[in-house]
Design goal:
about 180 residues, mainly beta, seven-stranded antiparallel beta sheet, 9 strands, elongated
Amino acid sequence: RFTVQGIEYIDDEADPPENANGLGDSVWQNDADNHIVGGQVGFRWSRKSSRWTCSTEGRAFAGYNSQNVKQFGTLGSNLDPANAGVLEVRNMEPTSFNHSRRFHEFSPAAELRVDMMYQLTRSVSLGVGWTGIWIDNVARAPGLIDYVLGQESVMGIGNDNDELAWAHGFNFSVELNR
């Protein structure tokens, strides 16, 4: 989700603030939903030595991604073409818009996880690890906005729906076994 809300005033200290009547009184939102399905293959390896256990896991899949993108908003809600001033866009009326679009992509993905555990006692272990996830061809809301002001359309949904997503992080664990 990507949301923009702009409110513009000539004098924001006045009570109430004096409106500038520009495109500043505008709001729009873009939503991009990725629905990825597909088969998965993986591997797991671990090795225990004394109190230490090292393990690695990996997964990969080739997914079909059905992307739903929606956009709506209003530009210049306080515009009045009859009283166009110096700061106002001339000959433009307040304009609302609502767009939707569906894309279909091949989205491969992979995950790698590495963990190290230390067995403190017979039933308590402490661990630390790292996980990384990579997904290709995903739709992200900010990159899909087509900033167009024209007679035929206002705003729109662009074609940049094949971005790469990368996420990683460290994890810490306490394991209790009875």
